[in-house]
């Protein structure tokens, strides 16, 4: 009897969490399929599906280009972050040198700075490099918050890997670069997928840097494009189109999580139990 009650309580808790987490997206989907006065009435499913909101998102602005910009920037940020952080994590986790702990906590401290604190200096740097209003400039800017995160997480994972594997490879004459690429890289792949997906989501949803470092509609990313959707007047917001754009932007992230859910769970639990 007690076991059944525990299972029932667990099931209720899971359902409650799922409803709490999924209802905002469901309501955005419902709102995106409504138009006119229906937007201001409570309907848990629209009586008539207003697909024109989705068509208007692409017709009234270069939203397809904005999606491409976000995809290019987020993918480049993840690729650079993982490529750099896997070697940095190896050095911080496996190589003994003076100031290693201080350096590691410095990396963590950099990620704690609010974006607004570095925005002015970053703007000057991006402008001086000739990258203003270009997606490579956004890639450089996003590395400020993705690279410390990926370095810190991968360092924690690499610390838990058995040293015997590394020592055997070094005895056989393998260089540190070969050890990282051929031995550690396959072992930390679940962790890299997890951190890479989280970095992708952070870069995909970033707003402040994208708003400051881009100027034209053709170079903006989707968060800025959604924020700049306007209605017939400044006092009237086109909620149907805004919600349609939000659903379009959120759907790829949900798809990625569903595709890599097993790797994400494996990456989150890797290193959680010491042998």
Description:
The chain is mainly α and 275 residues long. The chain has 2 domains: 1-50, no CATH class; 52-269, MetI-like (MetI-like fold), CATH 1.10.3720.10. The protein has helices at 2-32, 52-59, 63-94, 100-110, 115-128, 135-159, 163-171, 176-187, 189-205, 208-213, 222-227, 239-259, 261-269.
- Please report the first level of CATH classification, the CATH class of the largest domain: Mainly Alpha
Q: Strand tally, please?
A: 0
- Kindly report the name of the CATH homologous superfamily of the largest domain: MetI-like
SSE succession = HHHHHHHHHHHHH
Q: Note the gap between the termini.
A: 36 Å
C-alpha-based Rg, rounded: 23 Å
Broad structural category: mainly alpha
Helix content: over 70%
Approximate strand percentage: under 5%
The CATH architecture category of the largest domain equals Orthogonal Bundle
Q: What is the CATH topology assignment of the largest domain?
A: MetI-like fold
Supply the number of structural domains. 2
Helical run tally: 13
Brief descriptors of the model:
mainly alpha; globular; 13 helices; 275 residues; MetI-like fold; disordered C terminus
